[in-house]
């Protein structure tokens, strides 16, 4: 590696990379609301930026990024990193900026994405970084973090909801309109109608033929929302609710019924359903 004087102010870039690290860490930890680890990593990113600019060839930056050299070239083609200058002989010359962009790209895509639009949102942030539009990237990262926290809260509510449904806990007698429920769950009214048409839930209507939602209906819709966001098919969700109803008739769930038990049961039901589909296809 060749070292040259680092004479460009990188505060804005450093801040972006540090902030981006926050939402990546949030996504990769179960407790997304606790940002202790995120802030520690934020300070690590800032302190790791050298006052010396490094210039590397493809093999060197690939080794530092722990990827194949072809991946580096591919990231340039996909505009995940800034355009790479060439020497007179045609060899690429990478800077520390490219290395940081590679690091962010690897962080952004190292986990499997199961929620709706997460990969698209992460790709947008990385490409904005590659175009050196750092303020836009920072805004996108902040938006992504807010989205992740919201989805995490919905997931926690869904867990508690399923536990209440299984244990037949009492609920209030309050009712809600179709529009208010859609707003409450951050869904479109058409999405709710589509779920109803596909028999994921049934709803009562008043004398004016308007839908009337109860707390029990909202609980079920909350679970459907989380499962659909995780790309469960409508058929598999319907099957899961059938399994839940059968389980309620056969078993009484203890007071210490945990989230781990719930998720194990939920996803084992889905696994058995998928296996049955494979068997029928075979």
TrEMBL record:
<keyword id="KW-0238">DNA-binding</keyword>
<dbReference type="GO" id="GO:0003677">
    <property type="term" value="F:DNA binding"/>
</dbReference>
<keyword id="KW-0805">Transcription regulation</keyword>
<keyword id="KW-0812">Transmembrane</keyword>
<dbReference type="GO" id="GO:0003700">
    <property type="term" value="F:DNA-binding transcription factor activity"/>
</dbReference>
<keyword id="KW-1133">Transmembrane helix</keyword>
<dbReference type="InterPro" id="IPR047057">
    <property type="entry name" value="MerR_fam"/>
</dbReference>
<keyword id="KW-0804">Transcription</keyword>
<feature type="domain" description="HTH merR-type">
    <location>
        <begin position="175"/>
        <end position="243"/>
    </location>
</feature>
<keyword id="KW-0678">Repressor</keyword>
<feature type="transmembrane region" description="Helical">
    <location>
        <begin position="12"/>
        <end position="30"/>
    </location>
</feature>
<dbReference type="Pfam" id="PF13411">
    <property type="entry name" value="MerR_1"/>
</dbReference>
<dbReference type="InterPro" id="IPR009061">
    <property type="entry name" value="DNA-bd_dom_put_sf"/>
</dbReference>
<dbReference type="Pfam" id="PF00376">
    <property type="entry name" value="MerR"/>
</dbReference>
<feature type="domain" description="HTH merR-type">
    <location>
        <begin position="58"/>
        <end position="96"/>
    </location>
</feature>
<dbReference type="InterPro" id="IPR000551">
    <property type="entry name" value="MerR-type_HTH_dom"/>
</dbReference>
<keyword id="KW-0472">Membrane</keyword>
<protein>
    <recommendedName>
        <fullName>HTH merR-type domain-containing protein</fullName>
    </recommendedName>
</protein>
């Amino acid at each position: 590696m060749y070292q040259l004087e680092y004479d460009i102010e990188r505060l804005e870039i450093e801040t972006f990379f540090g902030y981006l690290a926050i939402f990546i860490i949030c996504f990769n930890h179960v407790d997304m609301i606790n940002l202790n680890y995120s802030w520690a990593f934020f300070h690590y990113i800032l302190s790791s930026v050298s006052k010396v600019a490094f210039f590397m060839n493809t093999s060197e930056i690939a080794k530092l990024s722990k990827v194949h050299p072809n991946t580096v070239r591919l990231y340039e083609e996909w505009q995940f990193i800034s355009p790479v200058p060439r020497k007179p002989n045609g060899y690429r010359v990478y800077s520390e900026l490219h290395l940081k962009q590679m690091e962010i790209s690897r962080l952004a895509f190292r986990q499997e994405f199961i929620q709706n639009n997460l990969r698209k949102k992460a790709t947008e942030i990385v490409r904005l970084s590659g175009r050196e539009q750092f303020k836009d990237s920072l805004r996108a990262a902040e938006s992504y973090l807010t989205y992740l926290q919201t989805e995490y809260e919905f997931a926690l509510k869904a867990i508690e909801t399923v536990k209440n449904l299984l244990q037949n806990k009492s609920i209030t007698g309050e009712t809600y309109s179709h529009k208010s429920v859609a707003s409450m769950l951050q869904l479109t009214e058409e999405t709710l109608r589509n779920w109803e048409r596909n028999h994921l839930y049934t709803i009562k209507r008043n004398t004016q033929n308007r839908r009337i939602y109860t707390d029990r209906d909202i609980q079920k819709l909350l679970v459907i929302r989380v499962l659909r966001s995780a790309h469960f098919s409508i058929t598999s969700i319907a099957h899961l609710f059938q399994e839940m109803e059968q389980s309620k008739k056969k078993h009484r769930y203890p007071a210490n019924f945990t989230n781990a038990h719930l998720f194990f049961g939920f996803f084992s039901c889905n696994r058995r359903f998928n296996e049955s589909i494979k068997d029928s296809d075979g």
